[in-house]
Amino acid sequence: MAEKDIYILGIESSCDETAASVVKNGSEVLSNIISTQISIHRKFGGVVPEIASRKHIENIMPVIDEALGQANLTISDIDAIAVTYGPGLVGALLVGLSAAKALAFANDKPLIGVNNLEGHVFANFLSGENLQPPFLALVVSGGHTSLLTVEDYNTFKLLGQTRDDAAGEAFDKIARYMGLQYPGGPEIEKLALSGKKDAIDFPRPLLPGSYDFSFSGLKSAVINYIHGLEQNDKEVPKADVAASFQAAIIEVLVKKSQLALLETGLKNIVLAGGVSANKALQDALDIGAAEVGARLVHPTPILCTDNAVMIAARGYYMYKNNEFSDYTLNANPSLKLGAK
Amino acid sequence: MLTLGIDTATKVCSVAICRDEEILAAYEINMGMTHSEGLVPQLEQIFTRTGIKKSDIELMAVSIGPGSFTGLRIGLATAEAIAYSLKIPLVGVNTLEALAYNLPIEGILLAPILDAQKGNYYLTIYEWKQGEIHEVDAVRVVPGNELGTILAAYNKNVLLLGECAKLAGVLPCGVTCAPCTVSMPKATSVAMLGIKQHLGKEDRQYFGLEPFYIRRSEAEELWEQRQKNLVKSDE
Ligand SMILES: [Zn+2]
Q1: A102–B77 CB contact, under 8 Å
Q2: High-pLDDT (> 70) share of chain B, %
Q3: Between chains, do B219 and A103 touch, taking CB under 8 Å as contact?
Q4: The predicted structure's pLDDT at residue A303
């Protein structure tokens, strides 16, 4: 007899996207609704937590309703409700979490609390590539830079992480310093296309003997370079700065990933998190992985940034593993990878 | 009309089931615990203990502010998701009016207040007349140290409700704090006021309510101030 189909409703509100999605059997996307707030936060130069929370409460139920509608299902057809409970902005997380808990309660459905970072990793299962654990994962986002091994669908081992600024944070801060609009990462990437990546020799902090990262020194070097030119009334070659800074970050990420691939002997590496949308990073990592006999898998563009498909996908494997949450589940803004 | 009420506007987490003017069950916790952890477990218990079926609930009433922004959103997100699931209408009830609804007593002014941060309070003045509650003065944000003067100016006996404990020693003659038995936000009052507000209405919205914030976010206020300064320096 064929196994019963499993429909998971995913809900995500950890930062500035309100999202809901229905995913069948962890792999078939029936709907993917994302209400983004990027344009609202732009004039403030970054995400304003209280404003984000206000937009979330406005959008959460319409987004959930649309996700169910587009999947042609009602809430009673759903097998479980998966929701991001961290990491992220606490007030933002609480909106999606409260709605998810009440949906689970009112409909007597199981509740599954999902770690947003694990969700990002699982976005790769929907990339259309044939991918199975074990593999290496490089998570690069505004708040995180981590290397981990995904041993099976429910076991993750952290190899290293950032000791100070996350890669995405360095991108955002440099972008802001250069007067680029929020979000800064994609702006730097665009600018870098017309610059020379070997124009300026920025430091590549490698921290030998560890899989940890440190980007605050690099960030300061870039800011000092710009500041130095400005002091002398010289023009800042913005495109060259962007290209050289991006190249330095990418080189560190690729070298560390290569080391980890060689040491673990893993043949697949996945890219995850907001910065995974960066095409230059994807290309460099693709080549870097091939150099050590491995293959890179990265999410499709729509699944690189926060979305609820990845939360539903992660939720599906937790459902299979009987990992449910009870109604006391609270938001955890600083939730770590692999933490329960 | 079988109604489920929720109030998480302050640090009190209160849920209740009422049928018209009758309180069937009420469960409130006032120990500063997080609403996120406690609200749904409290709902679960109230249904388990009463044996009332969720599907028998006909109306969802929620306290929508003023109050703690985060608390209001937890309550509203929960209420919306329940209304949506049970396909029942959702009504938002003013938190200050629900407080005044705790004490249907005529001949005095009721002044429910709630903490508005930085020494300020949300204040509305109500009065009961012939069994109906009336708003005497609309909601405003007032500094705590001016509250006594403002209330004394009414030249009537005034009873403070809500988060007034801190003010007990500094109130002028004729203005007193209501006893705690009627001073706390109660989901029973939210439910009953909700029933009243819903009566005769046909609309059936499961979501689309907004919390009654009164104040904009600090970031917006600062941004606006900066824009004004920019305009000034241009002149
Ligand atoms: Zn994320």
Answers
A1: yes
A2: 98
A3: no
A4: 94
pTM for this predicted structure: 0.94
Say if the Cβ atoms of A91 and B213 lie within 8 Å.
Answer: no
Distance A305 CA to ligand 1 centre (A): 6
Give B96-183's CATH code, choosing from 3.40.50.12780, 3.40.50.450, 3.30.420.200, 3.40.50.150.
Answer: 3.30.420.200
Tokens of residue B229, six digits: 């300064």
CA–CA gap between residue A252 and residue A247 (Å, rounded): 9
Contacts of B220 in chain A (CB under 8 A): 48, 51
| Tokens 């006391």 found at | A328
Contacts of A185 (CB under 8 A, 6+ apart): A142, A168, A171, A172, A175, A274, A275, A277, A278
Average pLDDT of chain A is: 94
User: And the tokens for A207?
Assistant: 């921290």
Instruction: Specify the domain boundaries for CATH 3.30.420.40 within chain A.
Output: 7-122+304-320, 131-298
- A143-177 tens-digit pLDDT: 889 999 999 999 999 999 999 999 998 999 999 99
- Chain B residue numbers with beta carbons less than 8 Å from the beta carbon of A43 are 223
The residues in A 148-187 lying below 8 A from B, measured between CB atoms, are: none
For the cut 90, the answer to whether the pLDDT of residue A181 exceeds it is: no
Of B38, B70, B218, the CB nearest to A91: B70
Whole-number CA gyration radius for chain A: 20
pLDDT of residue A12: 98
Contact flag B38-A50 (C-beta cutoff 8 Å): no
Comparing CA positions, the residue from B43, B37, B44 lying closest to residue B191 is: B43
Homologous superfamily in CATH for domain B2-94+185-218: ATPase, nucleotide binding domain (3.30.420.40)
Which CATH architecture fits A131-298?
A: 2-Layer Sandwich (3.30)
- Give me the interface pTM, i.e. the ipTM: 0.95
Three-state DSSP class for A292? coil
Interface residue A251 vs chain B (CB under 8 A): no
Q: Render pLDDT for B203-224 as a digit per residue (tens, 0 to 9).
A: 778 888 999 999 888 888 888 8
